[in-house]
Amino acid sequence: MSEGCISMNTLYFKYAVEVERTRSITKAASNLYMAQPNLSKAIKELEDTLGIDIFERTSKGVFPTVKGREFLEYAKKILIQIEKMESLKISRNRICQNFSIAVPGSSYISFCISDFISELNFSQDININVERMNSVDIVNSVADGKYNLGIVHYSLDYESYFTDFLRDKNLCSETVWTFEHLLVMSEKNPIAEDSDISAEKLSGLIEIIQDDMYVPYINGISRKSLSSKRITMHERDSQFELLCRIPDTFMWTSPVPEDILRRFKLVHRKCSQLSSKYRDLLIFQNGYKFSELDRKFVDKLYSAKNSVSFVEYM
DNA sequence: ATCGTCCAGATCTGAAGCCA
DNA sequence: TGGCTTCAGATCTGGACGAT
Questions:
Q1: Nucleotides of B under 7 A from a protein CB
Q2: What contacts A252, CB < 8 A, 6 or more positions away?
Q3: How many CB atoms lie within 10 A of CB A209?
Q4: Strand partners of residue A103
Q5: In this predicted structure, what is the pLDDT of residue A221?
């Protein structure tokens, strides 16, 4: 450990990342199945090797220093690369279907993913990693190499922000489509008989808000709700269940596949007065080579999009 | 090439003490 | 009182080396 950076133990990176996550050496040690003094010593050794303080110790736990935060960012990237190298070892001599993507909570994307997975070859090894998160985290995760692909969903009001953000992170993007958000509600909703609903009619109903749809969180900006009755919910199926069971509810969303609308007895409606345009981008690292599985997924993504794109604005 | 032994270094645990 | 550090002693691990 005393030979400088070359002999740094990457296991210690894992320790440091866990300490940062738990904000406690005791908790981190417990999670890592090791003794607390040992972890404390390992962190100290790592700090000595680097010549920086990674954490500030307080009676309420440990907190990363400015330099420590910078180090932890690098450490996380290295751990991701190590994980990828290890997965190469696992799949050696065997065909393994590897695929990873970070996605927003759009139902047409969820639909596409389940369709894609259902067509995998189940006699071969499968290593699929799908995570739902907000668009800012999706960009960071793809830039860090945690996911090979990402789908970013944002309002066109933030177009320039995302263009700059992707350029800063050296990521490539491809527009999947540009569309207007629609209202989705129970077919029994009292206003469901109107094909183009007025803003005034919406104000008396209960709005279900899917928080991560309204990214970016930049400056805390999100779509302004007209309704004083709001329910914020993250879980997709629960949102549809609620829309189905309480006819006085509605939700803004990207177009929902017909199959799901039928299953939950829901309908789409427009609200020209309030609707705004959104864009979904497929993102990946500059120079990333698409695997056969990636291409298969992209085909599925476009056909899922085509099946719901009855209202499209390019 | 394989096996057994030795040994240094790494890692572990528990106890004691420090600090806010 | 809770959380972290330091210390001493025990245990584990892996490399070196000789015997077969």
A1: 10-15, 19-20
A2: A181, A182, A183, A184, A207, A213, A223
A3: 19
A4: A132
A5: 37
Q: Which of these three, A57, A87, A117, is where a domain ends?
A: A87
Domain count across chain A = 3
Quick check: is A313 in a domain? no
Question: Are A16 and A75 contained in the same domain?
Answer: yes
Interacting residues of A227 by C-beta distance below 8 A, sequence separation 6+:
A202, A203, A204, A205, A206, A207
Q: What is the pLDDT of residue A86?
A: 66
Does residue A301 surpass a pLDDT of 90? yes
Please, which positions of strand C sit below 7 A from a protein CB?
A: 2-8
- CB of A127 within 7 Å of some strand B atom: no
Range of the domain at A126: 95-177+279-308
Q: What is the pLDDT of residue A212?
A: 57
Nucleic strand C near CB of residue A21 (< 7 Å): no
Higher-pLDDT residue of A226 and A256 is A256
A15 CB closer than 7 A to any strand C atom: no
Answer whether any strand B atom is within 7 A of the Cβ of A37. Answer: yes
Give chain A residues 23-42 with Cβ within 7 A of strand C.
Answer: 24-26, 36-37, 40-41
In this structure, are A108 and A170 located in the same domain?
A: yes
Would the pTM count as exceeding 0.85? Answer: no
Does any domain span residue A232? Answer: yes
